[in-house]
Amino acid sequence: MTNSEIIKFLTSTTVNAGFVDKLKIKYRPVICPFDDLMAYAKDTKSVFDVGCGSGQFCALVANFTGVNTIKGIEINERLVNNANQVNQRFSGTKNIKFAVFDGNTIPDDIVEYDLIYMIDVYHHIPQSVQKPFMKQLFDKMKPGARLMFKDIDAGSPLVICNKLHDLVFAKEIGKEISFKAAKSLLTEVGFKIVEEYKKTVFVYPHYFILAVK
Ligand SMILES: C[S@@+](CC[C@H](N)C(=O)[O-])C[C@H]1O[C@@H](n2cnc3c(N)ncnc32)[C@H](O)[C@@H]1O
């Protein structure tokens, strides 16, 4: 599917949320390549989204792929409420659920999932717990499961644009790491990297790392 189909689908979503949340739900694919990310879910049965925000990526997976079992976790209860609304339309057809988590303890049922996504979440995790978080994720995933790790490249001068973005929309300064450091991190905690690439969309220097346990 194309990005314009994705945006058409998300703009048709009705959700009782604030202005900024609505803006992110409907237009986040303009800056974040959800189409590229979704491609990895094509032949997968179950998807787990760590830091799922308002659940719009889970809704895209539910709508545009054959994935049947989807779970999203999020530290912000307001966004979990949004996610439940955004995914309401799949309640009869997909096994889809959302949960609030404390940002530290990843739920044990992640072991049941084949493909884990972390989309622009790593740079929101406090620096002191970033690496232990990834080690915990590795330990809790089932052998053979895949992680799609997508974040913003601190090795690019354009990282400043993401920092300004986060300052405006999340009221915090991101803890981005470079593409190179991200690959080292994933390898150090035990993952095997099977695919990696970078893609700049407007002023956002994205990197994508597909890793296997
Ligand atoms: C830039 S948003 C991305 C949301 C979603 N993954 C997407 O791509 O639309 C970052 C998300 O990470 C969540 N987050 C922040 N700190 C976190 C933490 N310590 N652990 C997990 N998620 C966290 C935020 O609440 C926010 O929803």
Provide a brief overview of the structure.
With 213 residues, the chain is of the alpha/beta class.
**What small molecules does the structure contain?**
S-adenosylmethionine
- Output the helix-strand order: HHHEHEHEEHEHHEE
Task: Give the termini separation.
Answer: 28 Å
Summarize model confidence as the mean pLDDT: 96
How would you portray this structure in words?
The chain has 213 residues and is α/β, with parallel strands linked by helices. A 7-stranded mixed β-sheet has the order 3-2-1-4-5-7-6, with helices on both faces. The chain is 37% helix and 23% strand. The chain contains 8 helices and 7 strands, in the order αααβαβαββαβααββ. It has helices at 3-11, 19-27, 34-38, 56-64, 77-86, 127-140, 159-169, 179-189; strands at residues 46-50, 69-74, 95-100, 115-119, 146-152, 192-201, 204-212. Bound molecules: S-adenosylmethionine (SAM). S-adenosylmethionine binds next to helix 4.
Keywords:
binds S-adenosylmethionine, seven-stranded mixed β-sheet, Rossmann fold, 213 residues, alpha/beta
Write the layout of secondary structure elements.
Elements: H1 3-11, H2 19-27, H3 34-38, E1 46-50, H4 56-64, E2 69-74, H5 77-86, E3 95-100, E4 115-119, H6 127-140, E5 146-152, H7 159-169, H8 179-189, E6 192-201, E7 204-212
Parallel strand pairs: 1-2, 1-4, 2-3, 4-5
Antiparallel strand pairs: 5-7, 6-7
The structure holds S-adenosylmethionine.
